[in-house]
Design a protein that fits this description.
- The two termini are about 20 Å apart.
- The mean pLDDT is about 95.
- The protein folds into 2 domains: about 5-210, 2-enoyl-CoA Hydratase, Chain A, domain 1 (Alpha-Beta Complex), CATH 3.90.226; about 215-260, Lyase 2-enoyl-coa Hydratase, Chain  A, domain 2 (Orthogonal Bundle), CATH 1.10.12.
- Helices cover about 45% and strands about 15% of the residues.
- It is α/β, with parallel strands linked by helices and about 270 residues long.
- Strand 1 (about 10-15) and strand 2 form a beta hairpin.
- Helix 4 (about 155-165) packs across helix 5 and helix 8 (about 215-225) runs antiparallel to helix 9.
- A 6-stranded mixed sheet has the order 1-2-3-5-7-10, sandwiched between helices. It has a 4-stranded mixed sheet with strand order 4-6-8-9.
């Protein structure tokens, strides 16, 4: 199990079935470095395996969610004794790709609470979560074009899936700041919330998910993701197979009993 006291760049806590994972380099706007991403990967793995955790909240400490990759990180520096530039592809393969894959495969729903600017890989890690709630002052930026790079951490897949090709290309090629309100209007995120209501909204959503039918939530996410590259015929088969599985679940049986008895269901998460 994860020892939260050993974490240097991430904070981790569990309360009422919700694991809160906080990017914790506020003095650096929570910019990402190799050691920090390893901690984040480990924390998500712990949440995935902990039966006491039914939902996850990912957020940032201080005034930013995440400013993206810390370009001063040693992983971004040339290898010792070499004049060649750092292998950024290796950085992506070592840190970002496993992290995004873990987020998308989490066996529990993940809420991202974007408390400030989300830039570069920080923005795309947020978008890889299931539900994104942003404070009104937050913004989303794809600054890769300023460095001659492509959006990574899943950005080239996530952006067009969420907002369509035209807006995805515009965001990626121009690197413009997109405010939280417009991000919600475009469908990039679930909701933009006033600062006074932000914490309570995130808590309410996370606790509702933690009390819900976890397996059904996860299969719903998987089905929607499959639809991005699926035909209608094959998607109908996906729905059939998932309904067959879920129809045999404890949560479905409880849901039916609760509906008939006209009482709130008490889901076990499986």
């Amino acid at each position: 199990m994860l020892d939260a006291e050993d974490l240097k760049f991430i904070a981790y806590s569990v309360k009422q079935g919700v694991a809160t994972v906080t990017l914790n380099r506020p003095d650096k706007l929570n910019s990402l470095m190799g050691a920090m991403m390893l901690e984040l990967y480990s924390a998500l793995g712990n949440a995935a395996q902990d039966p006491a955790v039914r939902a996850v909240v990912l957020t940032g400490a201080g005034r930013a969610f995440c400013a993206g990759q810390d370009l001063a990180d040693t992983a971004m520096s040339p290898k010792s004794g070499s004049n060649a530039p750092a292998d950024i592809g290796d950085v992506v393969e070592t840190f970002y790709s496993p992290l995004v894959r873990r987020l998308r495969a989490m066996p529990k729903p993940v809420v991202c609470a974007v408390n400030g600017v989300a830039a570069g890989a920080g923005a795309n890690i947020a978008l890889a979560c299931d539900i994104v709630i942003a404070v009104q002052a937050a913004s989303f930026i794809q600054p890769f074009c300023k460095l001659g790079l492509v959006p990574d951490a899943g950005g080239t897949w996530l952006l067009p899936q969420l907002v369509g090709r035209a807006r995805a290309v515009g965001l990626a090629l121009l690197g413009d700041k997109l405010g939280a309100e417009q991000a919600a209007q475009w469908g990039l995120i679930w909701k933009c919330v006033a600062a006074a209501d932000f914490e309570s909204e995130v808590t309410a959503v996370a606790r509702a998910l933690a009390a819900g039918p976890t397996l059904g939530y996860v299969r719903t996410r998987e089905a929607i993701d499959k639809a991005a590259t699926s035909t209608l015929d094959s998607q109908l088969d996906v729905e059939r197979d998932m309904q067959r599985e879920l129809g045999n679940s404890q949560d479905y049986a409880e849901g039916v009993k609760a509906f008939i008895a006209k009482r709130p269901p008490v889901f076990a998460g499986h």
